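chain below, 490 aa
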Amino acid sequence: MGSGVEQTTLVITVVLLIVDLVVRVIAVIVVPRNRRPTAGMAWLLAIFFIPFLGVLFFVLIGNPKLPKHRREKQAEVDRYIRESTHGVERVSDSRAWPSWFEGVVRLNRNLGSMPLIGQNSASLIGDYQGSLDAMTAAIRSARRFVHVEFYIFALDATTAPFFDALGHAVARGVDVKVLLDHVASARVAGYRRTLKRLDRMGVRWQLMLPVQPFKGKYQRPDLRNHRKILVVDGDVGFMGSQNIIDRSYNKRSNRRRGLKWKELVTRVEGPIVAGLDAIFATDWYLETGEEPARDLTDALEQPGEAQDLDCQVVPSGPGFRSENNLKLFLALLYAAKEKLIITSPYFVPDESMLYAISGATQRGVHVELFVSEIGDQALVYHAQRSYYEALLRAGVKIYMYKAPYILHAKHFTIDDDVAVIGSSNMDIRSFELNMEVSLLVRGASFVREMRAVEDGYRHDSRELTLDEWLQQPLRSTVLDNLARLTSALQ
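prediction:
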């Protein structure tokens, strides 16, 4: 009897060992394929040290791309945009451009399809309530259509006037469409109340990247649409970092800590508004199959404002072949001659970005980084901290925006006349997993306004020094380094 049990145990052990070996061999073949070396190594370590859980997680979240049919639809839209907008570029005197700027514009055109367009106006809104008020006022003046696309879209006491304006617009015959990210919006308080309110008002709404397997709608659950866009009548647009929700994000833990989000939104007018609307129309088409009725070429050729900013919309995300935003950021980091000022709430760079930043300081470029003193997401917060020593040693000035504010703005300026603002963080999630939108702006007036915003940040921040950082306790260093390892699991 005992002998039979021992033989059974031996057989089971041998089978498990063989399965374990097969899993490891297959992992070595499958995991690194078309993946960053750091991400491949992190996944292999997870599978080798925790085989069954590692394999399970890899099956669930190991593919960083959207399903094939969505990528094909994105490629179809990109071809249409490139073909229909050929020759519409109407920009300022290119002789005044920095020598490197034309190459960056061509890069964006090849990756994201959108052209550089001139004759635009743009202004910045750094006040949380002020940006909501400005967007609400624009909706109240709508005559033809309102297109709303936000990562988080929630009805609460702060956003109620925004929702009221949408309802009044529908009542007077304006076509109102709303896109909201499924997972992100569903995680905040009042999600069902928000959807019911949209239905009552007669707003046409659609979830972005819905995780609804029983309805045939499924992709990797953490591939999200992180864009924030509002377009009214094709005349005015808003984009930036801010979601439609109270600045506490309606979380008890945030209110208990007194956390408040600090954002930056840009209001744009001119033909570039049609570029933002093209991003909305693309996402609406991807979710509904409904093709846009508006001709993009005619919209882009509408006369612009006297401020004459050259602007280019840069979409990015897992529907594209490569990391459009990362390549744009790297090109700008390498192009800078005098000054780089970066603001990112979640700054977890990959090796290429670290090299670009250290290379900038080594060739004499002044580099500053604005981050929050405290974090709202522990894992990302600690992963970000793990890079501070290397950045400080490279000569980067790090400013920590003081608590209880979370500096959630996402932008950076290059020298004196080029800037980028949008929804994209400078982390691996925004580079690979999130659908993002950035706006490249060339114009000294816009950069001066951005510099004033940065001066405000500097006034409300404290500079982190290398001496201070080296006094960090060992437990913090351990947490930071562990979090850094997990950040590569993309």
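The chain is about 45% helix and 20% strand. The longest strand covers residues 117-125.
thats it, cya
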